[in-house]
Description:
This protein is α+β, with helices and mostly antiparallel strands and 483 residues long. It has helices at 2-67, 73-77, 96-105, 137-140, 168-218, 233-282, 289-316, 329-339, 341-347, 366-383, 437-440, 445-455; strands at residues 113-117, 122-125, 144-148, 151-158, 325-327, 350-355, 362-364, 389-399, 402-411, 459-463, 471-478.
Amino acid sequence: MRAVRHPQSLWLKLMGMFALIIGVGVIVIILVVNLAVASQFQRLVRNGDLLQAQELAGVLTNYYARQGDWSGVDSVLGTQTLPEVGHGMMMGGVTAGEMVEMMRGSGMGVDRVVLVDAEGIVVADTAGEQMGQRHPDEHLAVGQAVTVAGEQVGTVLVGSMIEPALNPLDADFLRSVNLAVFLAAMAVGLLALVLGSLLFFQITRPVIEVTAAAEALASGDLGQRVPVRGEDEVGRLAGAFNSMADSLARQETLRRNMVGDIAHELRTPLSLMQGNLEAMLDGYYERSPENIEALHQDTLMMARLVDDLRVLSLAEAGRLTLEQEPVDLGELVQRVTDNFRAQANEKGVALTFEIDPGLPAISGDEQRLAQVLGNLLANALRHSPAGGEVSVRCAVASDQKGDWVQVAVRDTGEGIPAAALPNLFDRFYRADKSRTRASGGTGLGLAITKQLVEAHGGRIWAESEGLGQGSVFSFSLPVPTTP
Length: 483
């Protein structure tokens, strides 16, 4: 349940936040659109009322010029037909009353028409509410003046000039627009929620899988892997998890092998020492200097094995201290090779070295580098038969990363099978399974050598053309760049 609960809560959080954002967005959109539509629609109504007032003002101007006063004008603005008094009172052959009725019937927003005289007294009101009353001065300021012979004889007001409320048709239209905007915003919001839910499921599903696999991994199931469904960030997360799981499984295998190898390596000499000591105590084994020396050699070998394990563990953990200083690798090769000359002569193996002139100095720990070369030479001499040859060559090599000083140790031994080359630098690995510890060392020399070379920023590798063809162990160290 834990593997599912956390990602589901993440999905709920994402959906909750997304729904909140959508809700706020829908509300903001509805408010903004409603305000904008209402404002623009009211502006449109006001402009329409102004145009209608201007048309009516022209008709009423002709009426006043003919009549000389406003008597009977209410019938002009009503349903009665205005008598023929000239084309100036007509708009395309339509009387003022007919024009008012046409505007009312077309839904143009004409609810009411009010005409006031020069003193501000209402002389005509299609609503019949203010007849004979004084109209508010603030409304007169926005009305359309009726002028005869340069003198204002009245003011005509239409619709919104009289009262701010929209007529029923206008209000109904505005409500329809607002309802359409609301429904559209809700539909878009619901669609966004559905698509967001699908998107968040696609995002959280790999998280569910990675979480479940991680918890299984933590409980000891190192075979857990998650499917990689793309190359985006989530896909890279799944790939990184799989790489981590592979590394953990590999390290666990190495750990178990190392524990088994250490137990095996220590069991054999300890058993021999225990048997010999018990035999000495029981009087079956002579306590001669030679026998005691053999026991001493066994203790030295175990001490060397423990020391090698300590160096290897420090190197693998990156905690091995290196005394960095300029090192002449050519001089180091010559000195270490000379130290092995007596051992080579005793075995009947020719030992030579070749050093290119003008080698640049490298930065490193001279004692550790001597240990690297010593391990390779000891390994080469151990595998070379009498009459064989071991040669060391030191030269400069270059690649796209810079200059390197490369050391190669070649022997004429039995060679290495191709299948064994990738594992040569693993701890306790033997290409020849029949070799004993007495003739094969502790089995940690090449593993330690690899760690020491890599601690110096270099690399090490082995080559062999096959059994009976000898082998070459090489390592390269970087040449420091001068500023």
